[in-house]
Sequence to fold (112 residues):
Amino acid sequence: MKKIEAIIKPFKVDEVKEALQEVGVQGLSLIEVKGFGRQKGHTELYRGAEYVVDFLPKMKIEVVLADDMVDAAVEAIISAAKTDKIGDGKIFVSTIDQAIRIRTGETGDEAL
Fold:
């Protein structure tokens, strides 16, 4: 099993969710996050004063799935989230040792 964590622009969430559903992903978690990368934030003007916005709003999507679904899910996220502009985000894939469905006690891929 693998966990995919994708940090994307907030306005791309619906497109990414639909793309993941099309490749067979049945569930995901969505978390509001703030951060910066190479983009390094930006400056804004508020009531005549200029200030720096270091942490930009992003959305983090987490999905745990079987190993054979990872490549399709990653491709779906890339195609749906890409705008070709700085700040499109990142995708991280990590290994999951165990998954347990609390209600039934199922483990492994059956718990997903």
